[in-house]
Every structure is written in structure tokens, then in C-alpha cells.
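Format notes (please read before filing issues)

Several people have asked whether sequences and C-alpha cells are stored in separate files. They are not. Every record keeps both together, in the order shown below: the sequence lines, then the C-alpha cell lines. Line labels are part of the format and must not be stripped during preprocessing.
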Amino acid sequence: MSEELDFIIESTEENMQNAIRHLEKQLLNIRAGKASPAMLGSVMVDYYGSMTPLNQVANVNTPDARTISIQPFERGMIPNIEKGILVANLGFNPMNNGESVIISVPPLTEERRKDLAKQAKVEAEEAKIGIRNDRKAANNEIKKLEISEDLAKIGEDTIQELTDKYVRKVDSIYENKEREIMTV
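Then the structure lines:
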């Protein structure tokens, strides 16, 4: 195959892998039944005037399946951490004991589990859209190349195989997350 075609295929596969990584990162923020430090991954805290990720100003642990414990590096950060959790709108009510912030993670209701599964489905669909957009961009690039029709067809078939592979991967990741969410 031509060097340019190989480059298009490689960069398209890399873009599709990035879509998968992004999906996995997004699904970490969707709560599944038990407490996890990843649930607070989107929380930003005002640290001396600059917005900083929570995990850079405190240790985040899960002592048990229903509790998240946040131990700030500086005791004066406790009010800012509580505010950051409330602003992130994750549905948690932080409490502090003067030394750390504690979040009790309530068990999920059946209705909430279904909502979270729908949210995961939306993320999976967005990943599929990204993958299909990568396919479209690659096919457009192939059409611009000055190569034989046979080579162009081989390139487009290869891109389609990659698309199918990564869409199946998205489906698999979603099914696992849905199973995790719906398990009581």
C-alpha cells in the first residue's frame, strides 16, 4: 500500500482508540452501586484562587462500599472541598468532622439505576458517533489521494473493518457498565 494510505489508516485507528479511552473515562464518572474515588473525578476545588482537581488537594479513599473519605492536605481546604462537591452537582451531601470530609453514598434505587444506565448509553452513542466521524474523515482523505481505485477500495475496506471493531468494543464496554449499574 502507499505510505500516505498507511498513515491515514494508522491515524484513524489512533483516533478511534482515543474515543474508547474517552468513553472509559466518562463511564468512570457514572456511579455504579458502590463508592469509588473516581466518582469525584470531575470535582474542582478553589485552591488559593485557582480551580484545581480534588485529587491534587486531598487524599480520596473509600473505607467501605458506602463511604468516601476525603482527607485534605491542608485543614483550611475543608470548606472549599465541600463547596466543590456541591458545585459539581453529583447528588452527594458532604459532611465534615473538622479534619476530613465524609460522603455517605446512598444505595441506588431501581429508577436511579435505570437513569444511570441511560446516561451510560448516551456516552456510548457519543463514542460511536466519534468513531463514525473518524471513518468519514479517513474516507474523505483517501478520496483526495492520487492512488489507484483498487488501493482506495482496500483502504476504505480497512477503515470499515476498524470502525466495526471499535463499535463492537464500545458495545462491549457499555454492556459491562450496564451490568455493573444494574447489579444490586
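For reference, the curators noted about this record: The chain has a mean pLDDT of 89. The CA atoms of residues 35 and 65 lie 5 Å apart.
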